[in-house]
Each structure stands twice: as C-alpha cells, then as structure tokens.
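Incident log entry.

Two folding requests arrived from the same account within the same minute. Monitoring flagged them as a possible duplicate submission, but the sequences differ. Recording both here for audit purposes.

Request one:
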Amino acid sequence: MTNKVKLSILGISFSQVQAGAYALIFAEENGIRRLPIVIGTPEAQSIAIVMENMTPPRPLTHDLVYNIFKSLNIELLEVFIYKFEDGAFFAELLLRQNNREFRIDSRTSDAVAIALRTHSPIFTTEAIMQNMAIVFDEKEVLSTDLENRDIEAEEVPENMEEVKIDALKKRLEEAIKDENYELATKLRDEINRRKSAENG
C-alpha cells in the first residue's frame, strides 16, 4: 500500500527563471517539507482566483468542470500526485458517482484547481516527498567558503551542468532560506539528475 502524504497549498510564486510560469508550493501536513511544482500562467490564475476568494465574471474551465460535477452528482474524493517522470508530475482524480468510484488521469495543475473548488484533499507519495521535496529550515544558513564557482542569489546559470555540485548545494540552501522555491526547484532537479547519473 502506498504511503500517502497529505498536502496543503502554501502559495504561488512568480517564476524568476522561466517566462510565463509559476511555482505552486505545497506544504506537507504537520511537517517542514515543501514540494514546488512549476505550472503555467492560466492554471496559476485559476488557482489564485479561488485562493483569493474572487469570482470571475464568467466561469473558467475549472469552474465548468466543477459545475459539471455538481450537475451529475460526482464527488471528488481526493487528488493524488502519484508519480514524477521525465520532468513532470502525474496526478489522478478519485471520483465517486452513485456509489461507484473511479480514477481519471489529470495534469497536476488542473487537478489542484478543481480540488480547491470542491474542497477535496490533495495527497502525494512519501517517495516523491523524499526525492523531490525541499526541507524548509527557518534557522539561518551559515555561509561556507567553498573552492567552487559561486552562484549569485537570483542567477540560474545557463550552463548549470558546469557548476560543481557543492556550489549547487550551497545555492540550494540559500534559495530555501530566501523561500525562493522556484529557483530551489531548478537546483534540486539538477542535483538529483547528477545523483541519478552517478548511480546509473
């Protein structure tokens, strides 16, 4: 049985390294780990509208799905982010209609936008949290002199593969301290890519 971790939405931050994208930040329930997921502008706007208790003049796509669910007596029991593969998170909707439960594959951003409207819980796996989450430590991160190339606070080098892994780890700590989760996501992915290459 998959060990599930319940998530809540901590917020949305504007991408500083990818034009037209945002970082959706999840927090684990009763924990200090954060799971950043990069999403597009339309999905970010749809999520933000619900989080800010705003009502658009006309229904958005996710509002339409929500209205269809209500009309057909479909209940969204949960959203489950179950896999990370090839740079993308995979999610599914667990639905119930007339005592019959079924699952539908979904983009994570769409699933979250719908879950916010139906007030449904969001889960992921412990494996995803262990491999992809960032541990947020409120303690001050002490700077350490390293004999490696340093990375400026808002810089993500185009040739990141040429930066030594110790320098990437140092910058990751700084990004977490600054709560720059989108930058931390890029650094985390590069570090994980190198670890996978070494183990492969």
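Request two (distinct sequence, not a duplicate):
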Amino acid sequence: MENKFLESSEFYNSKFNNFSTIIIVPIAIMVVLVFFMSLFMEKEVSINTIGIIGNYGGESTAVKHSRGSSLSSTIHEGDKLRAGQIIGWGNKNRPPIKAPISGLVHIDPNGEVSIFTPIQFARKLSCSMYLRQKDLSLVRRNQSIRLTIQQNSDKPIIMNGKLRNISVVPVQSKNGPEYNAIGYVKVNKQNAKRIKYGMNGEISIISKKETYFNYFENKLLDTRY
C-alpha cells in the first residue's frame, strides 16, 4: 500500500510540476515582457474632430459682380481658366477682368468668383476644423494632424500634415463655444484622384505621446478619482 501511495504521489507531483512548467512559467515571462515593453513603447494621445478640405494657398478672388449685372454665360462653375484669360460679363458696360492665376472657377451664390488650383496638381490642401473649449489646453500650432476620409468599398484615404492657426474668439454652436482652426495636409497623386474640395473626414490632432504604462496608469487614476 505504501509503495502504491508513494507512486501515486510521485505521479501527481510530476504532473503538477509539468503543468506549472508548461503553463505558468511562460505566462509569467510574458507578463514581465509586456510590462517592460509598456515602459518604452509609446502611444499617440490625440484629439478628434471633423475637418473639411479646401484649396491651399492658390485661391484667388477674381471678381465680384454687382446687383443688376451678371456673369457671361461663357463662364461656368468648374471651368478651367488660364492666367490672364478674360472673364466676360453679361453687362457689356463693365470692363473685362483677367484671371490672376490658372485654375478652376467657383461661383458662390453671391456672385463671387474664386479660382482654385486643380486638385490633381495640388501638393497640399487646407483643412478647416472646430475645436471644443475643453481641448484648447492640449492644442498648439505646428502639432501633427492626420485626416482620414472614408469612402464606400475603398480603403480610407489618410493624409498627414500640421496645425497652423487657432482662432482666439469662439463661435457659438449647439455644443457650446468652439474655436476654428486651420491646418494643412499633404496629398499625393493617388489620393488626389479620389478626393474633391469640400470633402470631410476625421481629424486627429496628435497632442502628445506617452508610454503605454503611463497611459494606462492615468486611465486607472481617472477611473478611481
């Protein structure tokens, strides 16, 4: 009986030791590795909002017609103009005006004509956004921004750039005071074929980078207090 008891004890001891060696030790090693990695690996802390893309730098107001006059029927939304090309008038008593730059025509409801750089030739696009009052302390000029535009059945368009200006006076919205901010994003030829002026997407303003350890530590403290 004693021999059988000893044999069974040795069997269970060896089985337990094998279990601890195969399962517990690797898990412990993994936990230690993850802990040390969290001390060095960094996570981006960002503020998210909606951004609208527009023309960067090349926009030029060519002319604004007055009440009682109209633009010539030869000039339409989206027309291509060359620098120096004459913009005609329906009222021929008005002197002709030359387009100051080459680009595409945009006519707003008030009759103001703007000329935009064709987007396929653009290398930068402006990006307009609004920031909440509580986020202002984390935002400053020249921070990195990332614009993500989702499109049906296509992979998202991602463009990176910088934040340039933040207004000092807020505008009132249904969400409370908001501050207009302007930045730019860089666009390559492939992305330029898939986007148009006026498209919007999610803007991420990279406010800071911190280690994963500090990130989860702050989250834990925020939860407790």
